[in-house]
Amino acid sequence: MTVTKKNAVRKARKGERIRQVAAIPFRFGSGGELEVLLVTSRETRRFIVPKGWPMKGKSGRKVAGIEAEQEAGVIGKVLKQPAGSYSYWKRLERQFVRVDVTVYLLAVSEELTAWREKKSRRRAWLTTADAAMLIDEPELATLLKELKPPVEEAEPVDSPAA
């Protein structure tokens, strides 16, 4: 079942865990240092990573690629194994719910000039240390500080738009 905000609230009321999938788009800067792409949330304008609800019939990796393209305007290869996970509190309707997020790394190969949520978000390439300072979720900040992309080649994923 695809999770929507409405379904998430129902699950939370039943005491079930709510899950999301996120992408950390990355590249290597001109000096060879690792950089990650953060975007602003639409409502609070704070920096976050592109993330969303699971989608029926799509793997977590595929969803991470879709979210990165829609929210951050980047396309690339999503690494096979999750980079980690974190939890945060999300406001849904009139309550806060705990959300567990599985995070995938996305090796950026293309940065779009126009994308679905361009008008409602800003994006910024940052070192992992700077990104960690801007992130409000402590577990995600720790994940960013300790981030080391695997040396293995990223496996291609079909275009998220497909």
TrEMBL record:
This is NUDIX hydrolase. It comes from Ollibium composti. Its cofactor is Mg(2+). The keyword Coiled coil does not apply. CDD domains: NUDIX_DIPP2_like_Nudt4 (cd04666). The keyword Metal-binding applies. Transmembrane segments: none annotated. It comes from the Bacteria. One of its GO terms (molecular function) is hydrolase activity. Signal peptide: none annotated. Keywords: Hydrolase, Magnesium, Metal-binding.
